[in-house]
Design brief:
The protein has 353 residues and is an alpha/beta fold. The chain contains 9 helices and 12 strands. The protein folds into 2 domains: 275 residues, 4-Layer Sandwich (Purple Acid Phosphatase, chain A, domain 2), CATH 3.60.21.10; 50 residues. Helix 1 runs parallel beside helix 2, helix 7 crosses helix 8 and helix 7 packs across helix 9.
């Protein structure tokens, strides 16, 4: 080779970028949360459509949903699953992808048990339909040029992820990509509050994984509906980074002023380490204020009405010779009486015994 001395090693400059669209909790339902109007389900579809159009323009290599695909865990209807499937398929077609990468959230399982996230739940049905890929069950390595990114996931749990949760993916990924990995991306759905010990422990574990494998490790988290001031937390020395994406739509009037967004993450093979990882926040269309309704204010007379109805029923159901307190809880349960009224009724009945 001209200009190169014999025995001189030429370092090849790597090229290639893997980029992915990250969207937060969807909470799809046809039964809107208490402070949302009937347009809630439509807004979810519009928000994902907008994110996917942007992902297409950014030539994203994959798309990921960070858990809680549906809202009413254990009560999602067939109609809701079908409607959600159409929304997911439309988004995949827009970006030109086959499946969404995802991680089970607490609304995707029953009783916070990962074993309750199978075919008995919508997430299992959507997986069998070929619309989503659970990255917690099997990692997926996304390749573009020299760039190779391992997409993995750690499902919702009451404890924060540990190094062991991350390291269990090393062997299956290294089976074909040892020494070639540009970075790790972990999809999470955990309560990782800003400035918390749990969040610090996760970033530390990511750093330890990076040291072990020589590739930067990044986590993208759902579950927290706003970014909670933990929008981006990077540790350059440890080659680790964390981003909290926030929910796809506002589920509560408390979040009315929060700007929902999607996030594009990029891994650039030409820049080694965490310096080659970047996040781009993309605001999603704002919803109209009339899509929110204030929770109904408490009726100041409701406790009096409950108490009057309760005492009347108790009087009618209790023979004069019986102890009125004996059946009080049974009658209260039958009439769905508010706890405050039950306490007051017990006190009043006790005074007149």
């Amino acid at each position: 080779m001209p200009g190169v001395r014999k025995g001189h090693q030429v370092k090849t400059r790597l090229s290639g970028v893997v980029s992915g669209m990250l969207v937060g909790d969807m909470h799809y339902t046809h039964t809107p949360p208490s402070s949302r109007t009937a347009g809630y389900a439509d807004e979810i579809g519009l928000a994902l459509d907008a994110a996917c159009r942007r992902a297409s323009r950014e030539s994203c290599s994959f798309g990921a949903i960070l858990g809680d695909l549906t809202h009413r865990k254990g009560r999602t209807t067939h109609a809701e699953v079908i409607a959600l499937a159409k929304i997911l398929r439309r988004g995949l077609d827009t970006v030109g992808l086959r499946e969404w990468e995802t991680v089970p959230g607490n609304h995707d399982m029953i009783g916070h048990d990962i074993n309750g996230a199978g075919l008995a739940q919508p997430i299992g049905v959507l997986e069998q339909a070929g619309l989503i890929h659970r990255a917690d069950l099997e990692p997926r390595v996304v390749v573009s040029g020299d760039a190779a990114v391992a997409v993995c996931a750690v499902p919702f749990s009451v404890r924060p992820p540990t190094l062991d949760d991350f390291a269990r993916f090393v062997e299956p990924v290294y089976d074909g990509f040892k020494g070639r990995l540009t970075g790790w991306l972990f999809l999470l759905h955990h309560d990782l509050q800003a400035n918390s010990a749990a969040l610090s422990s996760v970033v530390r574990a990511l750093g330890e994984l990076s040291e072990k494998t020589g590739a930067p490790a990044v986590a993208a988290n759902g579950h927290l509906h706003a970014d909670n001031a933990a929008a981006k937390l990077a540790d350059g020395r440890k080659q680790a980074a964390f981003v909290n994406v926030g929910s796809l739509v506002r589920t509560s009037i408390a979040d009315r002023d929060y700007q929902t967004r999607a996030v594009v993450v990029r891994f650039d093979a030409s820049t080694p380490g965490i310096a080659g990882v970047s996040f781009q926040s993309m605001p999603l269309p704002a919803v109209s204020p009339d899509t929110f309704v204030a929770d109904a204010p408490p009726d100041p007379d409701s406790e009096v009405k409950d108490l009057a109805e309760f005492l009347g029923a108790l009087d009618a159901a209790s023979p004069v010779t019986s102890d009125p307190l004996a059946g009080i809880d049974e009658i209260a349960a039958r009439l769905s009486i508010r706890p405050e009224a039950v306490v007051a009724a017990r006190a009043l009945v006790g005074e007149h015994r």
